[in-house]
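Re: the 376-residue chain
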Amino acid sequence: MAGVYVHVPFCLRKCIYCDFFSVPEIGQTTAYVEALRKEMELRRDFLGEEPQTFYIGGGTPSLLPLTLLEGIVEAADRYFDLSHCTEFTLEANPDDLSPEYVRSLRSLPFNRISLGVQSFDDEVLRFLGRRHTARQALRAIDLCRLVGYENLSIDLIYGLPVAEKENSLEAALRLDLPHISAYHLTYEEGTPLYELLQKGLSPIDEEISASQFLYFHQRLSTAGYVHYELSNFAKEGCFSRHNTAYWKGEPYIGLGPSAHSFRGIRREANVRSLPLYLSSLSEGKLPCTVEKLSLTEQFNEYLITRLRTKWGIRMEEVSRLFGERFAESLCQNVKPFIDRGLLVGTEDTFHLTVDGMLLCDAILRSLILLDPIRRG
């Protein structure tokens, strides 16, 4: 199940925690879309099959005028054939969604909106550098529903070094949304938040952080959400098909500056620079680097993506994709974690327990292979 991802690199201002590639040069949106069309033309044969999901993320895609969004969709349909797509997602900032903008979106094929809410507490939003208020977030959700968007997702952030006066999770539950993504605040080097850390900002205590994760898991599970990936919860039937395909190793093409693509043993990464992206494509050159994965690297990629999900790791699949030696090595390496109650499953399949989710990164460091293994 192939997917198409388009990265829109524009933001009016950078949130203090954000490590995604974005720039404030809003005046270059038209040039960006023209370059994007050229990239689509040059890479039209990358997937080798019709995509089933289409996702525009960023950055802030909702900064683009509807005419440019329409141009992106039309070009993608021309070069990749979107007729088999069942999920069209647009990321949006709440303060960008005026009634006119949301109504006009209905003329485009988007059937899923992902809103970067992050918190329903205004003081937290100010600390994070968000442009919107809690009231604007609630209004944006109401506007989307008013014009017929029911497949809505919101992002929330926990693990904050400042206290929430308004419980954002409880506020989200009152909205009865089909999908909630919950991310722990991370201190990425090069971000303003990291600089605050260097200047003495105290991050949240690890035990409190763990208790917040468990609270999200328990509260959302009780409310009928499936914890289908470490940071994602959804009502049954409302999982993100696009992101699920990532975690299951399906091929996808990433378009736009800094976007990544994957197909089997091949991974591509576009240049993380808008000027270089524009200049390369103006000369008819692809602005990307290509990496071919070894069998061991493919195996590690499989572990890193699959273990994050409720579906976990299937030993039959490991044997079929990588060979018996990889499967035998993995069986030996997972046993201590099963004995400690961090992994659970049958002889053929295993996945993280809730306690295991808290230690996912440490478990993966023990399972991934640094030295190559020959196919068995």
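The chain has a mean pLDDT of 95.
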